[in-house]
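User: quick one, sequence for these tokens?
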């Protein structure tokens, strides 16, 4: 049985005369990838920022490893929590290596250990250390910058990492690649992740469990499959349907695309499908072959899909 990493106990938060978090209680287990999803203004980002005390709750308690967050030294608390923002927020006058090394240096890692760690992490996200180590953020694409933002957050292997809508400003292909990267790193590092998004589809793909928020309240916490098949109320049902789409078979391929090839790939694809094609077309083709290469409008490979990904998506979203 895993330990509770984060616990909210009747937490409330006001901004001026408005109560934005009404009475919030939930637990996140050690090693869990927990997703908070909701519309703009639902309170999900405020909830996230109370964990690293960028916002301080007005009532109730937040516990980190069984200890009240308010009892931690603030600097030490934040050194134990990785943080990835939508705005990326790399330091523009620092190189890629310096950005990634920031927290390990503050935690007094040796220079040699930091150098080794930076190179390992860059290779982990398919960026050649020799080519990228000394570049500046302005020399990187948006997707590359966000990769470095993720590496900076996990460089010192913090027990918990917060993601605040990190991919919402990126194009669908890059977003899919970074979602896959988060899943890969989570599986390898076993860190606890709390991920905020307004996209139910992203929540379904990433979350071990999902918390659906609206108007400062947590409406339902459950596994992706349970929420898809048994929404707690009409808001959850409508939000799910409007985000994912009622006609699942007309959903575009990009919803289930996978990037990179690994030992879990059942068979390298020999047939192709366009990223703008629908799941209905994929369903027909995957009845004949196990995997399909996904290409963009120019015929360039952007990833792949297989029967497992298709059936998993349909089973989790068909309610």
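Assistant:
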């Amino acid at each position: 049985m895993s330990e509770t990493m984060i616990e909210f106990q009747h937490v409330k938060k006001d901004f001026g005369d408005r109560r934005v978090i009404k009475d919030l209680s939930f637990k996140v287990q050690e090693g869990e990838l927990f997703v908070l999803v909701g519309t703009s203004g639902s309170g999900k980002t405020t909830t996230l920022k109370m964990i690293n005390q960028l916002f301080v709750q007005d009532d109730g308690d937040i516990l980190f490893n069984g200890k009240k967050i308010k009892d931690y030294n603030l600097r030490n608390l934040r050194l134990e929590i990785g943080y990835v923002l939508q705005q990326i927020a790399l330091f523009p006058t620092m190189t890629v290596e310096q950005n990634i090394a920031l927290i390990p240096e503050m935690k007094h890692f040796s220079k040699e250990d930091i150098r080794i760690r930076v190179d390992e992490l860059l290779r982990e996200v398919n960026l050649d250390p020799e080519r990228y180590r000394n570049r500046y953020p302005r020399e990187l694409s948006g997707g590359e910058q966000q990769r470095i933002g993720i590496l900076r957050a996990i460089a010192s292997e913090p027990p918990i990492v917060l993601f605040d809508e990190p991919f919402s400003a990126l194009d669908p292909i890059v977003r899919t690649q970074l979602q896959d990267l988060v899943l890969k790193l989570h599986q390898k590092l076993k860190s606890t992740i709390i991920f905020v998004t307004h996209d139910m589809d992203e929540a379904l793909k990433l979350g071990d469990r999902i918390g659906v928020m609206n108007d400062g309240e947590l409406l339902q916490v459950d596994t992706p499959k349970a929420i898809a098949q048994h929404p707690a109320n009409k808001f959850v049902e409508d939000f799910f349907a409007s985000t994912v789409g009622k006609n699942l078979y007309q959903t575009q391929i990009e919803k289930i695309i996978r990037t990179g090839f690994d030992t879990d790939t059942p068979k390298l694809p020999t047939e192709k499908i366009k990223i703008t094609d629908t799941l209905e077309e994929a369903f027909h083709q995957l009845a004949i072959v196990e995997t399909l290469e996904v290409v963009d409008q120019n015929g360039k490979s952007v990833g792949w899909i297989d029967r497992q990904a298709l059936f998993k998506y349909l089973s989790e979203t068909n309610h």
